[in-house]
Amino acid sequence: MKNYFTIALVCVFVLFSCKNDAKKEEETTQKEEPKTEVVAKNNDFKHSLAQWSLHKPFQDGSLDPMNFAPIAKDLGFTGVEYVTQLYPSVRETGDNYKERVMTLANKLLEISKQAEMDNVLIMVDHAGELADPDPKKLKEAIENHKIWMDAAQLMGAHSVRANLFGELDPEKWHALSVASLSELGAYGKEIGVNVIIENHGGWSSDGAKLAAVMKEVGMETVGTLPDFGNFCVKREGGERWGAPCVEEYDTYKGTMELMPYAKGVSAKSYNFDEAGNETKLDYGRLLQIVKDAGFKGYVGTEYEGPLEDPKEGIRLTKALVEKSISNLK
C-alpha cells in the first residue's frame, strides 16, 4: 500500500514539473519575440559600395576600375554602384557613344557575375545636363541618359543616377527638371529601370526644391538618391565643386524630405573620431530617418575623406553604418 502511495506521489510531482516547464518555455518564447522582430528589421538593409570611394587609386592607375566588383567583394560588400566618369572609354559623349557604353556594360556584367556581386546602380556624369536651358543640348542629354538606362537594364541595375545641373533660375530649373525626368521616367517604365536624382550641388541640394520636382513628376520610375553629405547649394565664386560652401541646406531636414522618393541611400563620410563616429554627420540620426521612411534595400558606403588608404575609410564607414543599423529603434 505504501509503495502505491509513493508511486502516485511521484507521478503527481512529475506532472506538475512538466506543466511548470511548459509554462516557463512559453514565457521565454514570448519574451524572445521582440528580439527576433528587431533582427528582421535590420535585415531590411544590405551594403553596397559606391565606386567614388576609390576614385583616387582608380584615377592614378594604382587600381583598375574594371576590377571594381571583386575589390568591393573583398571589402565585404554584396553590391556595387558604378561611376561612369571613372571609365575613360565613356568619359565623354560623341561618336559611337552608345556602342562604347554598351561594350563597357557587357564587360562589367561579366566581371560582376564572376564575382557574384549585385549591380545596384550606375552614377552617370558628363552625359549632358538635364536642366540645360538650350533645347538642343537638353534633348542630347536626355538621349544620352536613355543609353545608360539601357546599360543598367543589361547589367541588372535597378537605377541610373543622374544630375540636375543647368539652369540657375529656380523656377525655370524646376520646369526643365520636371520635363526631362518625365520623359526619362516614361522610358524607364518601358524597360524597367529607374532614373534617380542625388542631392549633388546646385538646386538639387535644396531638399524642398528637389522634393517639389519629384512630387510634380509623380512617377514610380523617378526617385531620389539621398546623400548624407551633399547639401551644399552654393559655393564661393559660383563654382560647382571644390570651393568653400556659402549656402548649405540642413542635412537632416533634406534627408527627411528626400526619403519618401528614395530608391537608394548614399552614406557619405569624411572623417572619424577615435570612437569610429563621423565627425560631421550623426549617422544614428540619419539612418533612423532612413528606417522611419520605410526604406529597404542597399545602403551605399561612400567614403570621401583624406586617409591615404581609402580602403581604411571604407571599412570605417561600413562599420559605422552597421553599428547605426544595429541601434535602430
Describe this structure in words.
There is one protein chain. By secondary structure, this protein is an alpha/beta fold. It contains ten helices and ten strands. It has two domains: 1-43; 46-326, TIM Barrel (Alpha-Beta Barrel), CATH 3.20.20. The strands form two sheets. It has an eight-stranded parallel beta sheet. A two-stranded antiparallel sheet has the order 7-8.
Structural class: alpha/beta
- The percent range for helix content is 40-55%
User: Into how many domains do the coordinates divide?
Assistant: 2
The CATH C-level class name of the largest domain: Alpha Beta
Give the strand content: 15-25%
Q: Could you please say which CATH topology of the largest domain applies here?
A: TIM Barrel
Instruction: Tell me how many strands there are.
Output: 10
Largest sheet: 8 strands, parallel
Biggest sheet strand order reads 6-5-4-3-2-1-10-9
Give the count of helical stretches: 10
CATH homologous superfamily grouping of the largest domain? Divalent-metal-dependent TIM barrel enzymes
CATH architecture of the largest domain: Alpha-Beta Barrel
Q: Which stretches are poorly predicted, pLDDT < 50 over at least 5 residues?
A: 1-40
Q: Write down the overall geometry.
A: globular
